[in-house]
Amino acid sequence: MDKNSPSLSRKYHNKVPIAFRCDNSRDLNRIPSDLNDFPIYGGLFRKIVIKTKPLRFLDSIKITPIYDSLKSNGRLNIIGKVNSKYVDTLHRQEYIIKGSLLNKDSVLISFNFSFHKDEFNISIDSINNLKLWSPSNPFLYDLKLSLSYDNKNSDSLLFRIGFRYFKFLKNGPFYLNGSRLLLKGVHLHEDHSGVGAAVPYEIHEKEIKMIKKMGANFIRLAHYQQSEEVLNLCDKYGLLVWEEVPWSRGGLGGTIHKNNIIEFLSKMIEQHYNHVSIIIWGLGNEIDLTGDFNYNNKDSIKTFLSYLNRFAKQKDPYRMTAIRRCDFAKYIPDIYSPSIWSGWYNGTYRDYEKVIKKRFYEVNHFIHAEWGVGSLYGRHSTDPYLNENDSLLHGSGEEKSYSQLFDKGEMRYSKDGDWSETYACDLVDWYLHTIEQWNWFTGALYWSFKDFATPLRENNPIPHVNLKGIVQRDLTPKEIYYVFQSHWAEEPVLHIYGHTWKNRWYDKLTDSIPIKVYSNCKAVELFVNGKSKGLKNFDINKFPASGFEWKLKCRPGNYFIKAIGHTESEEILVDSINFSLIEKNWGKPIKFKIHKEKISDDILLVKVELVDKKGKICYDARNIVTFDIAGKGELIKNLGTVNGSKKIELANGVAEIYIKLNKGRSVVAVMSKVLKLCL
User: Fold this and answer.
1) Non-local CB neighbours of 488 within 8 Å, separated by 6+ positions
2) Confidence label for 5 from pLDDT (cuts 50, 70 and 90)
3) Domain map (residue ranges) of the chain
4) Which of 14, 206, 234, 262 has the most CB atoms less than 10 A away?
5) Which keywords fit this entry according to its UniProt record (predicted)?
6) pTM of the model
7) Distance CA 194, CA 93 (A)
8) Residue 2 confidence (pLDDT)
């Protein structure tokens, strides 16, 4: 839960002692389960705020703005109570609440309400001239409430609220404020490089701004109630929200376990009810995956989930409920998402349309939550594809219990692919190009916006990091960020693929290599070493890159590539890259070369290259390397990034890490199986 607000009233020597005891040792009844694919952090990682309250103060405020599209006006319901438990209230006084709804600096409405009980219920009807909140125009009103009694002001609160209405059509799309809106979503964990779950406000805001700039309008806060700060930012910048209770994996236990789930759901709805951005309360994730409890009673899970669904509806009848991945309970919540990963955990990405059309009509309201692809920043490939004619590769597109493993099951890209940004861009491009042609579709949410830490996945290219992010764990954009922009962003975008691919190669059987430009411009012209290779027009029906692909003949040399984009408003965009093109003629990798680059007086960047006996870099090498250091210096490690990880796979034959010298001498070692230790 986001908040726990104990009363600090007992004094000792006129002071209030405060102590915190934190314990994240294994407890099967605690949620979320330790079996999850994300860390269960211990300690305090959100803000601690001590507030002084008056003897009588406003509490448990629940604000419901409702817009009537037929009357084109709105109404406002405000319920709450006066907390006066430290006051003798045998002789109740008259309370007065003064309120005002402000449109920036002008007052839209004002009201007074008097009452004698601690609870109050205020309704204001027929509010005219309202501006509706939406992702494209996240208009918020200020609602000010002040409490007084006995002619004295006692408390005042300020809320930022919005008016909007929405509907999920049965077996159809989503409508917001009367217009169809394709839900373009991502997921976000509370995790960041170097700080774990203790994410500061500045990083939260940067995340939300990047998500908006990418063109998304929807976010699933996985898999737990997140900070009030995040919800405030979603309200402010315009992101629709699916927020969920942390019942994720582990199965269903007894009374204590169930009560914990109910309490978390209750607190989440109570604490975040007033956020206009929230449209869905999530009741669970992957609740069919057991392990904490020695049984998997489907009937018990369905019975309990039905109770949760009714409970959520009683606390908030204005929003929808949803779960992801539990097929035997898919009819219980309002919205359901199966686990579909065509082209990653199962099948090929070209299977996606077939799989979605099969599952879409099985429930009344369908959203595809969690699709994606793992990629290592800076790894590129001239041939990222498996043999897609192999029948072992084709399947239902749905994730299986062993899909995340590297040593079990049928051929699949998560196990047998190269984890390159090249393949990732093609998969994302195909999904988006396909979805945008479906006028009947609700929407989908990519997993995940950021790479994030996990206690699992020790065999990933960066061990214990889920690498499906659109950006690295430190928010450095991967190439797929620009693919999303080319499909989703309102602002013009132009990006040539492969800014980090400085050395490209070809073999003797290859005649040409592709140059892809991801853009939403109406037309793009490509120049190679100053010569035009032609102008192409944007066409969403074409793949890849909406038609912005050129072929470059394979001739060794240095290349300067420039793209010029033309927008509908005649704006000109320019992007350029440099790279060398070489023939693939290196031999077996036998040793490492180490280079160093001074970043500052006390920071070095150490770069290691895997070479053959002639010293040629083996650009297709993917060996696992481990860095170590002796002396006064220290590795800047455990960041979960390509230059902040002690153990990592090579990206195109190269790996690097930063070192803090601590004003002394050090020896750096690079180790890999089979190869010699390099110092």
Assistant:
1) 184, 214, 215, 216, 432
2) confident
3) 57-161, 496-583, 591-671
4) 234
5) Hydrolase
6) 0.96
7) 53
8) 67
